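Quick note —
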Amino acid sequence: MSRRRRFDPNTKKNSTFTLNITSMTDMFTILLVFLLQSYSTSDVEIIPENGLRLPQSATTANPVNAVKISLSKEALKIDQTKIADMKDADFLPQDLESSDTNFIKPLFDKLDHLAKNSTEKELWVKEGKILLQADRDLPYATLRKVMYTASMAGFPQLKLVTLVGD
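Predicted structure written out below.
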């Protein structure tokens, strides 16, 4: 019986080793495409108010340009300007319409003023878009008053700002 001889490739002991980087280049290209697709940029900057705890969500939608309203337990603000004070997570009686307790007079006045004085560049005002930052511990009745008043002022497209995560 004959013995098999082990295969011994003809290599020179002092020669240089060449690296085939074609497959590595393919791998990096795939990684780059994946990272570019998963990376999102948005021209909208949303800065939560101090003490405002936003609800959490798993959404991946990017925010759009809109009128920014923040609603905390202490105040209602439009673009960092205080519109109405709040007490015990509800609006003060002088800020509500006497015949309709869901109607917030200062909010309506400010939104109506924004709608009448918007420029052509502010298309989101013409379309009636609002980004609402609301504290997660506020009751729904308080949020409903803001949504009702905004829709009466001509801003029916309301999006709630949330934190992405667990």
